[in-house]
Design goal:
289 residues, 9 helices, 9 strands
């Protein structure tokens, strides 16, 4: 990963200047060639005329959403990139009580074959801490770093013909594990667990289950922000699963109900798939589902 740039260190926390790293990447001919190819693919975005409720997650993860947002109204910068923000952590050793958490950006305008090359990603921050570190202690600093670099100031690009322009960027998706998602979105993990709808969990024994419920009302960007604001003002109780305002809501054009996808590994591979496998093998009683 590209960790060049000025380091801003505090104990157990290292931040990298996003604008500086992006400028270094744009001096790499291979990166510029991949970016040029990606931009050509987006010129005729077939999704750009869709209404927000018609858009699917692929448009957010593949950068098409920038063209779609431009149809809704003028963006701050004429030249815009889109990024996915990944936040994940792991134990240093299996028995260790400390771990390493990273926050990094992936340029979703790049073709998929170039997108996840280490040199093309931007490490925003590295945090060494206890495994159960409260995410609100660092997420606001990560969001501020990205906003200042890409949304507020932009990155000044000097061209060979002595002209220049400002390149901006938007975070159009945030990828998190379920536990990290609850912390970053400030969801309390209670009976309302879904950031996308108002499905209410049912307690079976000691496990909270979410059986299919026809007609469940979907959350919207507006309703999510209203609930978060009420919870922030009330302090004493959550509002429909939210504890308060998430730092992610500071991102321009960010929609928490559409830009934080369902995390596949824990929800499916480590969640319902083992149940199906055990049921298929005849080793799971119906009442334990």
């Amino acid at each position: 990963m590209n960790t060049n740039g000025t380091e801003k260190e505090t104990p157990n926390f290292t931040m990298f200047d996003v604008a500086e790293v992006l400028q270094l990447q744009l001096r790499d001919p291979k990166y510029c060639q991949a970016l040029h190819e990606g931009l050509k693919l987006k010129e005729e975005c077939e999704n750009k005329n869709k209404n927000p409720e018609e858009r699917i997650y692929r448009e957010y993860s593949d950068g098409d959403i920038v063209q779609s947002l431009a149809q809704d109204g003028p963006l701050k910068w004429k030249h815009m990139l889109s990024f996915s923000l990944f936040i994940d952590g792991m134990k240093l050793f299996r028995t260790s009580k400390t771990g390493l958490t990273g926050a990094y950006l992936v340029n979703t305008i790049l073709p998929l074959t170039d997108r996840f090359k280490c040199s093309n990603m931007i490490v925003v921050a590295l945090i060494a801490s206890d495994v159960d570190m409260p995410y609100n202690e660092f997420i606001d600093r990560v969001v501020t770093n990205i906003r200042v670099s890409l949304e507020l100031k932009g990155v000044r690009i000097e061209c060979p013909n002595n002209s220049s322009f400002t390149l901006g960027g938007l975070v159009t998706s945030v990828i998190l594990d379920i536990k990290e998602r609850d912390q970053v979105l400030r969801m309390n993990g209670g009976y309302y667990r879904c950031p996308h709808c108002y499905i209410y969990g049912t307690l079976f024994g000691k496990s909270l289950k979410f059986p299919p419920s026809p007609g469940v009302k979907a959350r919207t960007n507006t309703s999510f922000r209203v609930d978060a604001t009420i919870a922030e003002d009330e302090y004493d109780r959550p509002m429909r699963g939210l504890l308060g305002q998430s730092s992610l809501l500071k991102f321009d054009h960010f929609d928490p109900t559409r830009m934080v996808p369902i995390e596949v590994m824990h929800t499916f591979d480590l969640g319902i798939v083992p149940y199906f496998m055990r049921a298929w093998m005849g080793k799971l009683q119906l009442l334990s589902l």
